[in-house]
Amino acid sequence: MKEWNIKRYHAIPAEAVQIREEVFMREQGFEQEFDETDDRAVHLVLYAGEESAAVCRYYYCTEKSAYVIGRVAIRRQFRGQGMGAELLREAEKQIVSDGGTQAWLSAQLRAREFYEKQGYRAAGDVCFDEFCPHVWMKKNVSLADRRG
């Protein structure tokens, strides 16, 4: 039985900073990891027992008239266990709870297949975040769509 729990924060917690620095900055080489969106986003941290293992954030985007999920990161030693999918399900559940009907995300191209397996579909051309190719993807979310 998995001993995971997800905590919701309205300010970026130290665990989220640590995971994003580890994954996006040290592993992947991003330099501009933190932005003003962190100040208004809801941050989700998945804990494996007492250890912080994965993180994402979501926020309402007026430009898209929808919620955007982002900064999904899993520490290397916890990858391949389904934590990314679990975080997405929880973010979608929270979005529905907040009145949202659609979730968007900007996926690294190398992760596109993972997001497609979670029900997301490409909704735009490839664009670059720093040096890395991304594609906007979206999914309709509702109470009926929720899994697990």
What would you note in describing this structure?
This protein has 3 helices and 7 strands; from the N terminus they run βαβββαβαββ. The two termini are 15 Å apart. The chain has one domain (4-145): Aminopeptidase, CATH 3.40.630. It is of the alpha+beta class. The longest helix is centred in the middle third of the chain and has 15 residues, at 83-97. The protein is globular and about 35 Å long.
Uncertain segments are none
**Distance N to C terminus:** 15 Å
Largest sheet: 7 strands, mixed
- The dominant shape is globular
What is the highest CATH level, the class?
A: Alpha Beta
Q: By helix and strand content, what is the structural category?
A: alpha+beta
Percent of residues in helical segments?
Answer: 10-25%
Average pLDDT figure = 91
What is the structure about, briefly put?
Helices cover 24% and strands 39% of the residues.
Write a concise keyword list for the protein shown above.
alpha+beta; 7-stranded mixed β-sheet; 7 strands
Describe the SSE topology.
Elements: E1 4-9, H1 14-27, E2 42-48, E3 51-61, E4 66-74, H2 83-97, E5 102-108, H3 112-117, E6 121-129, E7 132-140
